[in-house]
Write a structure and sequence with these properties.
Length: 148
Amino acid sequence: MKISFDLDDTLIPYQKKDFEIENRTFFHKILQIEPLRKDTILLFKNLKNNGHSIGIYTTSFRKNWKIKLQFLSYGFNVDFVINQYKNNKLLRKNSISASKHPPSFKIDLHIDDSKGVKLEGEKYNFKTIIISKNDLKWQEIIKSKINS
Ligand SMILES: [Mg+2]
């Protein structure tokens, strides 16, 4: 499956206390690389080992290379990155008014924190898993839903 993850409030905390984060090295700090939710890399590696393609789908305007670099710096090479520039362009072309539309990018499953995205999934018939920042077993939830 081609699986995408949202960034803000799903993998990147808005506030430090939102959820635990991966260990940050001297380089992360000096290069001002954003923090990443704890166990993200473990989950990504696990999914990739099971044959899935793993990437990022965000409505933020972060540069694609910066997002790639962020994950590389934590030890994972994401298969694709869709930022808001790319998203806007294709959704406008396809005349889709949703904030996100994974099928336009041939994505089979999208993971997000937004209930709005869940509703869009129901409307436009795409699969989502919604994770809140309080879900301590968030990666277990994702793995079990993927394997069910
Ligand atoms: Mg979000």
